[in-house]
Amino acid sequence: MKLLNRNIEKDESGSVRLIPEGSEDIWHAYNLIQLGDQLTASTIRGVKSETKTGSVSTDRKRVNLTISIEDVFFDTYACALRIKGRNIVENKYVAFGQYHTLDLELNQPFTLSKPQWDLISLKRIEDACDITKQADVAAVTMQEGLAVICLLTQYMTVVRQRIEVPIPRKRRGSTTNYEKGVLRFYDQIYRAIKQHVDFDVVKVVILGSPGFVREQFFDFMMAQAVKTEDRFIIENKSKFLLVHTSSGHKGALEEVMRDPQIKARLADTKSAEEARAIDKFYQMLNDNPDRAFYGYEDVSKAAEHGAIGTLMVTDELFRAADVPTRKKYIQLVEDSQASNANVLVFSSLHVSGERLNQLTGVAALLNFPLVLESDEESESASEN
Prior knowledge:
- It is a single chain.
- By secondary structure, the protein is an alpha+beta fold.
- The chain folds into three domains: 2-132, Pelota, domain A (SH3 type barrels), CATH 2.30.30.870; 137-265, eRF1 domain 2 (Nucleotidyltransferase, domain 5, 2-Layer Sandwich), CATH 3.30.420.60; 285-366, CATH 3.30.1330.30.
- It contains twelve helices and 16 strands.
- It has helices spanning 23-32, 119-128, 176-196, 213-228, 231-235, 253-258, 260-265, 270-287, 296-304, 323-338, 351-357, 375-383, and strands at 2-8, 14-19, 38-50, 56-75, 80-87, 99-103, 110-114, 137-143, 146-152, 157-164, 204-209, 240-244, 292-294, 308-314, 342-346, 362-366.
- The strands form three sheets. The chain has a seven-stranded antiparallel beta sheet, covered by helices on one side. Strands 10-9-8-11-12 form a five-stranded mixed beta sheet.
- Helix 1 packs antiparallel against helix 2 (119-128), helix 8 (270-287) packs parallel to helix 11 and helix 9 (296-304) runs parallel beside helix 10.
- The chain is flat and about 75 Å long.
């Protein structure tokens, strides 16, 4: 993401002008845009014109529109963002108050105006525009007949292709059909990796599977690369990392991110830090539950006592349509930061974010044990 202009007033109102340069920038924009904001962007509009003879023709013109946002739709597979709202700046092509839908496009600037910019939104702009904070990981989870090719960034786990190939069962005395099915399956994975993995960007390609599927595929891939003189695969052989998983489904990436080899290779990335934090939370919940809280009520009480060491929140909570809900989580982050807590905002489209969502989307590791009275105990104490 490229920041072209930032104009934030003292009352925290204002606007920013940005250019999305990659698919992940569209995800950042989705998290920045909220209902009631104003968006200015260029769009293609069909304009009807009537000639002197009475015939009507339609021309497509690129126009700049400013809309008040009423609906936002994000396509997670295509990383496409569509925003609907009413036009608030009249021009000769679109009347004032008329509905229009804007599609944010790569390398096309847009201006986002808000009545109030909170610290979460400003931090996201900072992270999105810092190229050093980009994680570059691809992963392929597989089992016989099934493979899932994913791209892992700091904020998203995007499934680029799902491969399913029927493989005949082994029969005694003849394994020809079985071997042909396996080779056909491996060939499709090989082609998918070449199609979806940019080795100029990706630092690690994780191959995960149960049994020996990953080793057999890796041997097949390298043999094919040598046979076809595929220098991209041969030169990047060291980037492939083979790990064990329980299955070939996307969910197996949760195990992958806990693997010590992966943590070592990705030690400086945001996703690795989140994976370590959520692992530590579950361990603390098991060993010392008075230092591991989850759910807004308990975590906010821990913040009141200044007990939070690490606060974990999913970005989904900051996209809530209900303004008071957004504000209470932003306040929780501010209160935690005031006591020097480490705040981690997890992406709901990342594996670690999915795990945190199972814990209501907010959890905290405490600096010291904290025992909270239940509501019934508090009422009994007040009566006495």
